[in-house]
Every structure is written in structure tokens, then in C-alpha cells.
Amino acid sequence: MEMDMGSELGYDYRVLKLGGSLITCKDVPRCVKLEVLRRVSEEIRKFVNENPDKKIILLHGGGSFGHYEASIFDDNRIVRTSEAMQELNYIVAKHLLKSGIKAISVPGKFYTFDAVLSALEKDLVPLIYGDVKFDGSIISADDMSIDIAKRLNARLLFAIDKAGIIGRGGGVISELRGIDEVSILMQTNYYDITGGILSKIKKIFENNLNALIFDGSKTGNIYLALRGYNIGTLVRGNPNA
Prior knowledge:
The protein is of the alpha/beta class. The chain has helices spanning 5-10, 20-23, 34-50, 63-70, 77-98, 113-121, 141-152, 179-187, 195-206, 221-227; strands at residues 2-3, 13-18, 55-60, 103-107, 125-129, 131-132, 138-139, 155-160, 175-176, 210-215, 229-230, 233-236. It has a single domain (2-236), classed as Acetylglutamate kinase-like (Carbamate kinase), CATH 3.40.1160. An eight-stranded mixed β-sheet has the order 4-5-3-2-8-10-12-9, with helices on both faces. Residues 2-11 and 187-195 have low confidence and may be disordered.
């Protein structure tokens, strides 16, 4: 396991996005993986306690809450999706608070970078979540995490429920240096990828960021990723960082 000392020494911020597939049950509407959420919260707390000079920004996706409700197109889709995401965010925030993390919720529909800075200035941990806007369009936690990481020049951490990006031999690709590598793998049918992961990778390269995509369900990985260890797949969108 290689440690990225450039990240460890050079960044004051960590932007950690908890994937919806990590914290919710994939095939059961409005089901939370409570044990995973409890452990993730404890690992975040451990890092925060050991690194008071580092600032963390947390985000989470919709999983079987927001995505499920948003997929049903009826007259109540907007309010149902909004309510579902509020419910999930409440559960996440409650676990973080119980672990001693001073998380403050920021609904995606009201997200601004200034709001994130205001929370950080008050020694709070912004907890931003994917959401639905008043016009019914979806605001992605992935997009907001990329915006924050770019503005702060911070390493971006995507905690998912898979070991990383799977490559040619069925194993995890330790590092991706170009979007063309992804295209080649997909064309030769060696690359099993969801639209969500592919979208993440494209946006990482488009924004010249470095991002780690790793298995947040494995005990200790959240803590190690926050520490700066390269686990899973490092998408190197900025080779100079």
C-alpha cells in the first residue's frame, strides 16, 4: 500500500463523498446500512481527532432513498425525492454527531461554495447531500464534490461499495492517467463500469483533479484514505500534483 506523501503533506482539506451504494441497501427502497454508517462515522472521527489541522468536507449520495423516489415520475416526485433525501441526511448526520463529528447539513438545492467556507470557518464539518431542485432536476453530490475539491485544490475521495475500478485481468487498476485508458478497456469488454462511475472519471479528468475511488465498506479504508494512502484506484487527472 503506497502512501501519497504529496497529498499527506500538501493538502489542508479532504473532500470525502460517501456513495449512496455504500451507505444504503441497493435493492431495498429507503434502507440504510446502519453498521457501515456507524463504522464510517467512527473512522472519520478517528482521523479528525488525530489531525486537528485538517479540514473535512463530507458529501453523500441518494442511494435507495433519492434515486428510488426520483425514478418514479408522478405529480409528487419532487417533494417525495426531497423528503427522502432529508430523511437519509438526518440518519447520516445523527450517526456523525453520535461519533463526535460536528456535521452541519447543507441541502444540495441550497449549495454554494460560500456556505461550505462559512461552515469551515466556524469549525464545523459541512455535510452536503445530493438533492432535487424546485424544477425537478437533480443536483449530484459528485458534481458538488468536484466543484469543492477544485476550488480548494484538495484531494477528492470517493468511497463506494467496490474495491475500485476493475481492469483487464479482473483486478483493481491502481492508477488511471487518462480517459483514453477507460475507453480502450470498455471497447475490449474488459471494463465493467456503471454510468455513475464513468461519469465520475470523466469529470475528474475534465477538471484536472486527482481522486481516489475505493471500497469504503472495508474496515479501516475510510481512515486510510483520509490519511493519504493510495487504496483502490487513483484517478490522476492532474499528473503534476
